[in-house]
Design brief:
The protein contains one helix and nine strands. The strands form two sheets. Strands 1, 3, 4, 7 and 9 form a five-stranded antiparallel β-sheet that branches. The chain has a four-stranded antiparallel β-sheet with strand order 2-8-5-6, with no helix packed on it. A hairpin with a 2-residue loop joins strand 5 and strand 6.
């Protein structure tokens, strides 16, 4: 079942309107100065965040909107805005909760990471090397990239259903900068017109 069919099926089962505008959708949320913690909870707190830090005001989509998640991106920045290793390469897991169900549970995001490469399921085409080193016999590892994971199954966020993304590790010092979670995929947004 492709993502458009799956989204239509879920919307139909829930009685949600199916006549919205189709779109590419990206939802993102920032946690400022997370410090040292064993769990980051994204899409839970929106208070005081600007448009550059989140594009939502609560953890539910509007009644006329829905989305299929295709990728999860996790990014970490220092206080001066420099891109960092997300979680410093320590073993971490990510879970996605939609409503009261955990739809992705403890997905490991740093297999074989350490000093030898990136996380196991990147969308980036350079395969763990900086672009100027690809032709070299001994490529250098580029560790400072977001952790981006492509999901094999289509995860649906229906209208008016709360959702959350949790990252768990062992008491990692994320620092005083910011960590960002972005969910991207296919969605439907409210469209007032009948046709275009």
């Amino acid at each position: 079942m492709n993502q458009i069919t799956k989204l239509g099926y879920v919307d139909n089962k829930l009685g949600a309107p199916s006549d919205g505008q189709q779109t590419t959708r990206i939802l993102f949320n920032t946690i400022e100065a997370p410090g040292t913690t064993s769990q980051l909870s994204f899409f839970k707190n929106f208070q005081g965040l600007t448009n550059g830090q989140t594009n939502l005001t609560n953890n539910k989509l509007d009644s006329m909107e829905s989305m299929v998640i295709k990728t999860i991106m996790l990014t970490q920045f220092s206080t001066d805005g420099t891109l960092q290793n997300f979680g410093g390469g320590v073993q971490q897991t990510v879970s996605i909760i939609v409503g009261n169900q955990t739809v992705v549970k403890n997905l490991p995001i740093h297999f074989n990471y350490g000093s030898t490469g990136q996380s196991y399921d990147r969308l980036h085409t350079n395969g763990g090397v900086s672009s100027d080193q690809i032709a070299s016999a001994t490529p250098t590892v580029q560790l400072n990239m977001p952790c981006e994971i492509r999901l094999l199954t289509d995860i649906v966020i229906p209208p008016q259903v709360s959702f959350e993304v949790r990252v768990e590790s062992t008491n990692y010092p994320y620092g005083d900068g910011a960590v960002v979670c972005a969910l991207s995929g296919y969605g439907k947004i409210f469209s007032a017109g009948n046709t275009f």
